[in-house]
Design brief:
This is GDT1 family protein. This protein has 186 residues and is mostly helical. Helices cover 80% and strands 0% of the residues. The chain has one domain.
């Protein structure tokens, strides 16, 4: 169960102010909130499942001490990338969405899935699944991301007035660094 809390918290904080929240806010201006959360939630569950299974497979193939060092380094790299993105960042760019008639759920789900491929939360989920049970990491990362998406849909653009993107990214960088150091120190 520890993995659920770690994955959920890490993914939730990492997603605050990220493109997935901006996509959710944008889609919520064109589609019903239920459609946005359901479409993104299904895509998120599938992406996180694949990420967790890949992480589990890697965890079974690579010795544990090597994985722990690699995982620690990966999270330190995420921290550096997140911190680096703060330099020169004045505002987050808007994401333009082209509306599609009829198949809103598929449109939202596919757009989200494509945007998330290769994202840091996908790699974070894989990395955590090398250390913990893939099932609990999948559940936790999906909960964290769906909660983040739901928050974005419900609060819309107001969230960025309460939580500046720079501050959210700074907290995410600190969490990634802390997890990386924790994994490296054992």
């Amino acid at each position: 169960m520890e993995a659920v809390f770690i994955a959920a918290a890490l993914v939730f904080v990492a997603e605050l102010g990220d493109k997935s929240q901006l996509m959710a806010m944008t889609f919520a201006t064109r589609y019903r909130a239920r459609t946005v959360v359901l479409g993104m939630g299904i895509a998120c569950a599938l992406i996180n499942l694949a990420s967790a299974l890949v992480g589990e497979a890697l965890g079974n193939l690579i010795p544990e001490h090597v994985l722990q060092v690699v995982a620690g380094v990966v999270f330190l790299v995420f921290a550096a990338i997140t911190a680096w993105s703060l330099l020169g960042q004045e505002h987050e760019e808007e994401i333009s969405v082209v509306p599609h008639s009829g198949r809103a759920l598929v449109t939202v789900g596919l757009a989200f899935a494509l945007a998330e491929l290769g994202d840091k939360t996908m790699f974070a989920t894989m990395t955590l699944a090398t250390q913990y049970s893939w099932y609990w990491v999948w559940i936790g990362s999906t909960i964290g991301m769906v909660f983040s998406i739901t928050l974005a849909v419900l609060l819309g653009k107001q969230i960025l007035k309460v939580l500046p993107v720079r501050a959210v990214h700074a907290v995410a960088a600190l969490l990634f660094a802390a997890l990386g150091i924790w994994l490296l120190l054992g």
